[in-house]
Write a structure and sequence with these properties.
The protein has 334 residues and is α/β, with parallel strands linked by helices. It has twelve helices and ten strands. The chain binds pyridoxal-5'-phosphate (PLP).
Amino acid sequence: MPPKKVYEAMKHFTTIKYGLVQGQFELREKLCNKVLSSHFTPENVVITNGGSEALNLILASFPEKSKILMPKPYYYSYPYLASYNRLEPVYSPMKDDHIDMQDIENKISEVNAIMVNSPTNPTGMVEKPDTIKKLERLANETGRLLIFDEVYRELIYEGTHYSPKGDNVINVDSFSKTFNLCGARIGYCYSKNEELIEKIIQKKTHTSMNTSTTGQSMAIAALDAPNSFKEKNRKIFKERREIIYKGLKEIGFELHKPEGAFYALPRATNPQKVVEDLFDRYKVIAYNGEWFGAGNRIRLSYALKKEKIEEGLGRIEKYIKQENPSTIGEFNYA
Ligand SMILES: Cc1ncc(COP(=O)(O)O)c(C=O)c1O
């Protein structure tokens, strides 16, 4: 559930005029005062239709055929966003579901930007601050843009978050996950790179124009929620993580323990069949890991009430044990 303040604010909402393309000043200012580090000002922020639009606008600012390096597994929209903008995705295979810095360093000279997400969808892993600092340094030394997608930054159960910064860094965040406001479609990007922010505003002016002012009012109210809101949310997701991790292990799946976000990515042979069987006959939604560049895995979301997670685990267990035991066997987790 979103913070109560959001519902209260909606009772008094009256203005439905066009808004500023960059986003309502009050929201940008409040983000600077309450969320972002002190060296950002409202001029450095653009409010967008979810983190999704921010990612799209950032990529739209590159010339055709630019190359975008992304760790693999990746958030499944990244390659599409690159190709819709006539850019070329270049992949850097992760090692044990973490960024392989050596591979990134080897490839950096052939690309124009690096697009990284942590906490990560679909792996559920939280990248180490040290690694992110290395990426930040690399971007600022080589002049390559680091696009850092941190939409799950408030959902970390182990490890800590580090937000990179600098003239060659742009960060993407969202109200969807932190405040359970995904339908309001409010996200934002922020950067000290004034030229890039200008380009993004220019593209937005001629595409979506302003982000919904209704949604922005919800976001302004959400920022007034007490800190305990985020803490409570994190606790709820952490408990769900324990349930899904333990449940999948007990069924026999091999998987890393997710450290953040709300996904588990267990090993499975023939993931397409598993996904179809689970959906058609067991009414369980799983995604094929291949859609995220994670072959032989399935992705499960635990953004559900714990009773539903338990029910889903029961159905998965029935399917695996009765119909498809070879799905989870004989893997060396790599
Ligand atoms: C890694 C990642 N980035 C960005 C988004 C986009 O979120 P939104 O557009 O709702 O802010 C998502 C949504 O699931 C995501 O998982």
